[in-house]
Amino acid sequence: DRFDRVPRSRGGGTDWREGRGDYSRDSWFTRTFPELRTVARKRTVRIDTGEGAVQGIVVSPEGDVLAVARSIATRTRGETVRVRFGDAPTVPARYLGRDEAHDVALLRLPARSRPYAHFDLNRFAPVAAGTLVMTPNRRGLDGGILASSGARRPPNELKGLGYLPDVLQCDLRLWRDQVGAPLLDARGSLLGLVVQHRLKRTEDRWERAPFGAFALPLERLKESRAVILEKGFRAAPEEGFFGVVLRDLTEGEKQGRGLGTGVLAERVERGRAASRGGLRSGDVILGLAGQSLAS
To answer: Which of 236, 245, 216, 90 minimizes the C-alpha distance to 153?
Structure first.
């Protein structure tokens, strides 16, 4: 019922549903769910990447922190990473390893006499389309709606160069430093870890869309932590994805190239099978296995 009373202002203000408003200060979500902000701040750290900051979530009383692996780069086990709670001074956290299958890294905060406040990975909350969800920013909360009723596989073009398993999709406005933030429901239960913004195509590159994010669900986080604690590393599985976007040649392109047939490799993803085999963006595939290609 509180969600139905989201204020709708004219000419800007706080109407998040139309993509307007101040999302960093005094948002409707921050004012309506002040207890969630407190829960999140005590269980979320900011991680210094050297090029800015991202977030991570505390998931054990010993101070284990889960973060997005690619956002903090590849590090050696035992290496120090600087983290902080809110505006407190930075402290050294130890890098324990990464799980490339889920793009998750595990850090450990310094030992102390009292346990750390943490999210419980064994406390599973119901996940359904239409659920109100929130994630912390530096001053409060951003909120939106869970778009998928269960874990789904994002399209290949939304995965960039990183592998992502089944994820939750949210209609939620986020900023760059909210990668690694917790995804919470209105009761403060952890639903997942924000792993990537939704992307949109703009001419020759992919950019973050104004709304939309993907979150790694709780069961994946629990699995990744267990794998890293046991082995320190897990490689990403091979995918059955060739790694190329194809389209038919236009008649003008055929005439310009002096070709009667062929398919254009419009985009080739680095590191995939097509790229490793020597295919490059702009190449024309004339045939396959002895057969000419017309479309």
So the answer is: 216
What's the predicted TM-score (pTM) here?
0.72
Q: What is the mean pLDDT of residues 238-244?
A: 69
Single out the residue of 135, 103, 119 nearest to residue 58, CA to CA. 119
Question: Does the pLDDT value for residue 59 go beyond 90?
Answer: yes
How far is the CA of 80 from the CAs of 63, 64, 172, 180, in angstroms? 14, 14, 32, 18
Contact 82, 48 (CB under 8 A): yes
User: Under a CB-based contact definition with an 8 Å cutoff, are residues 248 and 295 in contact?
Assistant: yes
Q: How many residues does the chain have?
A: 295
Between the two ends of the chain, the Cα-to-Cα distance in Å is 53
Give me the amino acid identity at 285: I
Average pLDDT for residues 260-278, to the nearest whole number? 82
Residues 120, 211: Cα–Cα separation, whole Å: 28
> For residue 91, what are the contacts with CB-CB under 8 A and spacing of at least 6?
82, 83, 84, 109, 110
Q: Would you say residue 27 has pLDDT above 80?
A: no
State how far the Cα of 270 lies from the Cα of 285, in Å rounded to an integer. 18
Q: CA dist 211 to 146, 214, 288, Å?
A: 12, 11, 40
Instruction: Please report, as a single letter, which amino acid is at residue 215.
Output: A
8 Å CB contact between 81 and 216 = no
Q: Is the pLDDT of residue 203 over 60?
A: no
Q: Which residue has the tokens 């310094």?
A: 110
The SS3 assignment for 133 reads strand
CA 281/CA 274 separation, integer angstroms = 10
Q: Using the predicted structure, report yes or no on whether residue 155 has a pLDDT greater than 80.
A: no
